[in-house]
């Protein structure tokens, strides 16, 4: 089976414990950042599947995987998670959370004001 993705640190040990051959390399942080970003997208797809299947246990696991990837990515980018959580808190005060299930379908005109642009992202 061929892979080209970042894995958790203990995965090679687990493979060895099952007496299977494998090839893995250790990459620099810049390369790991690229792979972690791809891993988040992969885990997001797995989360979507778990939610669609109403699989609560797997949904929790996928949330955990995404959080672990975000934490590792932030660390490699030298961004403290406390800064991420603080930015999230400020943004929720400024533009709200996602509690009301609002789906924006269109906006008149072709440009956002600065406030609208910040809220859109």
Describe this entry's structure for a reader.
This protein has helices at residues 11-17, 29-52, 56-76, 81-95, 114-120. It has a single domain, classed as Helix Hairpins (Orthogonal Bundle), CATH 1.10.287. Helices cover 61% and strands 0% of the residues. Helix 2 packs antiparallel against helix 3. The protein is extended. The chain is mainly α. It has 5 helices and no strands. The mean pLDDT is 93.
Q: What composes the largest sheet? A: none
Total DSSP E strands: 0
Order of helices and strands: HHHHH
Strand content: under 5%
Total count of helical runs of at least 4 residues: 5
Task: Give the end-to-end Cα distance, rounded to a whole number of Å.
Answer: 38 Å
Question: CATH class, anyone?
Answer: Mainly Alpha
Structural class by sheet pairing and helices: mainly alpha
Percentage of residues assigned to helices = 55-70%
As for the CATH topology, it is Helix Hairpins
The radius of gyration computed from the alpha-carbon positions, rounded to a whole number of angstroms, is 19 Å
- Report the uncertain regions: none
Give the CA-based shape.
extended
Give the topology, please.
Layout lengths: L10 H7 L11 H24 L3 H21 L4 H15 L18 H7 L1
Helix pairs in contact: 2-3
